[in-house]
Amino acid sequence: xxxxxxxxxxxxxxxxxxxxxxxxxxxxxxxxxxxxxxxxxxxxxxxxxxxxxxxxxxxxxxxxxxxxxxxxxxxxxxxxxxxxxxxxxxxxxxxxxxxxxxxxxxxxxxxxxxxxxxxxxxxxxxxxxxxxxxxxxxxxxxxxxxxxxxxxxxxxxxxxxxxxxxxxxxxxxxxxxxxxxxxxxxxxxxxxxxxxxxxxxxxxxxxxxxxxxxxxxxxxxxxxxxxxxxxxxxxxxxxxxxxxxxxxxxxxxxxxxxxxxxxxxxxxxxxxxxxxxxxxxxxxxxxxxxxxxxxxxxxxxxxxxxxxxxxxxxxxxxxxxxxxxxxxxxxxxxxxxxxxxxxxxxxxxxxxxxxxxxxxxxxxxxxxxxxxxxxxxxxxxxxxxx
Length: 386
Ligand code: LLP
Fold this sequence. Notes:
CATH superfamily of the largest domain: Alanine racemase
Distance between the termini: 13 Å
Mean pLDDT: 95
Radius of gyration: 22 Å
CATH architecture of the largest domain: Alpha-Beta Barrel
Bound molecules: ligand LLP
CATH class of the largest domain: Alpha Beta
Low-confidence stretches: none
């Protein structure tokens, strides 16, 4: 075995595939439960969008987390994996009627509503089924986050949420609707956030909004601050988990919760990113005019983050220790952006070597596509490998 991977077991397996270290996942969940558990009003949900592999969902639901879903398919996946229905919340700017039906029929905890027309449709559908739907309003807090522009969501220019100036009117409107029960407020400012100051800014904004609502005698039971906590993509070995203590303590210190209020978190990446790697095989080592290419059998169809966000993932040759060489690591897809890394140093690569692309447990397998008529990658957990 080289490093943390069961290489012998890998040798017989068809590549590319995702490998999830379930021991690390369990440690991560236990740390989350310990750190969040220090604050009585805190509740942690897992954002299914980060990875819906049923084996991982099962472990996460067993750890007692709730689920944050963004589609009818995710609600079904959450229920199948054993998440309790009264811990499932459903967000998204464009909920179709069939998806709203799934939420209503399963009496999920809450719809995170993003517009008045959506509120009206949920009220109509709930009324037709003789039910009352709990709703929270997603408010666009106009708080920036120091992260990639494509994964910033809480600015006024983004499509998400209801503008702060409309918040009160929308709540008042919902209070008049027979089949709607106003529950709380929802926020999410972005993803891969490492600066606790960004979360602090969100807390300050929420404090102002709560005071504003209190002046109008509007009671808020739940506050959902979304997800967004980032991971250390450069050092997956040294930092296999984010600093959950600092994260939860930031909210405990800066958000002025009222008695009886619960504070919900929807963490995706922070839960699953570091436990997953994409394992791929070297097909060819090619000498270009000015550089060397390692051509692997995984492509942007298996892990799109480098092509889509220019994201960094640490890459390792896990079968061969040798002198370092400088390579571009590229996939087989007919697109120039099918590049995992440029000019990186790797132990000398040969045809057949296994390569691990690290920190790929979040937004990896779930964002895979079949472009070029490729097979979707499989996902294996520690217990699957002999
Ligand atoms: N809650 C809401 C409302 C969200 O939109 C998201 C992520 C989360 C929670 C979970 O965020 P996390 O804790 O994972 O940061 N595909 C991109 C990330 C997109 C995130 C979308 N929303 C990537 O690969 O970086």
